[in-house]
Design goal:
The structure is a single chain. The chain is an alpha+beta fold and 388 residues long. The protein is 51% helix and 8% strand. It has a four-stranded mixed β-sheet with strand order 4-6-1-5. A two-stranded antiparallel sheet has the order 2-3. A two-stranded antiparallel sheet has the order 7-8. α2 (23-37) packs across α3.
Length: 388
């Protein structure tokens, strides 16, 4: 099947297509987010298989603020069918139920809490803190999106059916030079993203996200809403909300404290200040939450709090500063491997993020540093993020 150029594909879906729901915009944004989170996955020019469940997780985060019972925001037309008013999005009942469970457990919900939930469900130690009912409803919602919502925009992404993407298939059924997200099971139903389209998303990530959000705001404004006060500004605020500093890192800090009390000395990768038992320190997100909320252990290291607050803040390191930090990052990861819980968490988090990291042997800490530094470099380039 002859395909249009990657740039034309994205332009066609976003700007030259009749959209009855926001599904097609959400599809592109979710692919873009996955590429941002795994920027080196198609090294060597491989096509990439994306489990529909991985895309559906991000839809939970995107649509989260639109299902607030106090102020629902429709994402498409509603009409009578058999005497019943249909939902604007097929998974609204499931996501609304998940939202209510979260509100009951936390005493309320913020627009970015869908991203918090996504992160908690990805990381085993954080998932264990969630109630069984929230976990079950999350999986039910993800399954409904993957089975009932995602197939439609995939099928009709182009001017005709299946002209942009092939029909999703089980990973074990896919042929050719194919990469997959770490942890993809043979039975996972996957969307194949061609190497050239993946590379376009990687290079233009910032602009694709901005255009997706812009088009999403314009689309939502055209939908009749129960609240007349919903406009593009309201939708923009919801679509760009991030968890920021509301992520608790108590578990990580407690285990780092134990290491320090056992005599392990960390070095701030940025100021090179020694951090030991009794030191004031911050647990820093190497890739800031403002870029993307990633609370995996490889992204969390002890740092000089003054430097972290006054100089680094929500910026990414320059290449020179990152090069200077590499041995200190390796030392931090080596310290983590000396404590059983941290070691298990680090290996699990690395395995779910980096497909080419060496998980065994003495080279593990250095391998994590290499993968982390490459990830930071790719994200900085893709997002054109401010450096320090």
């Amino acid at each position: 099947m002859q395909r249009a150029s990657a740039g034309r594909v994205i332009s066609t879906i976003l700007r030259h297509d009749d959209k009855r729901t926001s599904y097609k915009i959400a599809l592109l944004r979710s692919i873009n987010d996955v590429v941002l989170n795994y920027p080196t996955l198609n090294a060597g020019g491989h096509d990439v298989a994306l489990p529909l469940s991985a895309l559906a997780e991000r839809w939970i985060a995107y649509y989260w603020p639109f299902v607030d019972a106090e102020r629902p925001i429709w994402q498409g037309s509603r009409y009578m069918r058999g005497g019943t008013l249909t939902n604007d999005i097929t998974f609204r009942p499931e996501l609304s139920a998940l939202h209510r469970l979260w509100v009951d457990a936390h005493g309320g919900a913020q627009p970015a809490d869908g991203f918090l939930l996504l992160d908690d469900m990805r990381v085993a130690r954080k998932r264990a803190s969630l109630s069984a009912s929230i976990q079950a409803q999350y999986r039910k919602t993800r399954r409904k999106i993957a089975r009932r919502a995602l197939p439609m925009p995939i099928r009709y992404a182009g001017p005709e059916e299946w002209t942009v993407f092939d029909r999703p298939a089980r990973f074990r059924q896919l042929k050719g030079r194919m990469r997959a997200l770490p942890g993809t099971s043979p039975d996972a139903k996957c969307l194949v993203v061609s190497a050239d389209l993946w590379d376009t998303f990687r290079r233009l990530s910032l602009w694709i996200e901005a255009l997706c959000i812009h088009e999403w705001c314009l689309f939502t404004e055209t939908v009749d809403q129960p609240d007349a006060g919903v406009d593009r500004g309201t939708v923009y605020t919801l679509l760009t909300a991030r968890p920021d500093s509301r992520v608790a890192l108590t578990w990580e800090r407690n285990h780092i404290n134990v290491l320090m009390m056992e005599g392990h000395v960390f070095t701030c990768p940025w100021s090179e200040k020694k951090l030991r038992a009794g030191s004031d320190y911050a647990v820093d997100h190497l890739v800031p939450l403002a870029v993307y909320p990633i609370n995996e252990l490889w992204n969390l290291v002890p740092t000089d709090p003054a430097f972290n607050s006054n100089k680094k803040r929500d910026r990414l390191p320059t290449p020179d500063r990152l090069q200077t930090a590499r041995p200190h990052l390796t030392d931090a990861y080596a310290h983590y491997t000396q404590q059983s819980d941290l070691a298990a968490a680090l290996r699990n988090d690395v395995a779910t993020r980096f497909s080419d990291a060496d998980l065994h042997g003495d080279s593990f800490p250095a391998s994590v540093t290499h993968a982390t530094a490459r990830f930071i470099t790719q994200v900085a380039q893709a997002r054109n993020w401010a450096r320090f």
